[in-house]
Amino acid sequence: MEGTAVAIGTFDGVHRGHQAILAETRRLANADGFESVAYTFESPPRSFGETGVPSLLLPPDVKRNLLATWVDRVVSASFLSVRDLEPAAFVDRVLIGQLLCRLVVVGTSFRFGRERRGDSAWFASHGPERGLRVRVLPPTDVAGAPVSSTRIRALLRSGEVERAAELLGRPPMLLGPVQPGDRIGRTLGFPTANLSMDTRVLLPAAGIYFAHALGAVRPSHALVYIGNRPTVSGAEPRCEVHLLTPPDRELYGLSLEIHLLRRIREDRAFPSLDALRAQMQDDLAQARSLAASFPVPVPPAAG
Are residues 188 and 95 in the same domain? Predict the structure, then answer.
């Protein structure tokens, strides 16, 4: 039978709640011989009007790559192109007209269309008359509360990467190409790879993190610094990665995928570079003590 089963959402983070929707879409599509599709927006609708405020949990291309591991096809749309459509027009023009949708899967909190007038109840009432089967999934609860991108952002802003990982179903990720830095870490005996981050992506709270490093390097445990380097009068936030397994090639221009596993400490200013160096030695000792408990995954999650 020709047609598609479509999961709709922003899917920022592709967290465990999203994964439940995507898995159900794939299951139902396979049962009926449909193509499974994830219809998503490049940026969360609520981010419009918040210019300059980093809020994404993943860069858009990484989100698309993760979504593609769950469904047959990913359709990425601009929210601005559909936000003024009435719910009926969105369903008729986009879902049915463009995607040949026969089955739609959404969560109970999903809203769509002009002024967010459409919701799961609208689908249940008006979908069947348009030939649409509708599956509405309840929230996925973790630790007594629904999983949401908003909840994950709050955890990251407070540096609670382990709790965020429980909601994501994987460690929080940072991704970006390595760019030249000022080599201060090298002079301290801790060479770092300075990541160029997508400015739309939310950085966790400043501090030192124990992590996995993947991508352009041999899989390695790592220390990750996030902050504005108050000891050396830094300004712009930095994401600097010290690999516990030294790289076997020059990294400039190559991309790293960082999985944040545990926050070791907060960022702070030190009275001298010697004091900073001593603290970094302590950080390294903590990282080495943690390494045995966190085996390095071989395949990068982002593809």
Answer: no
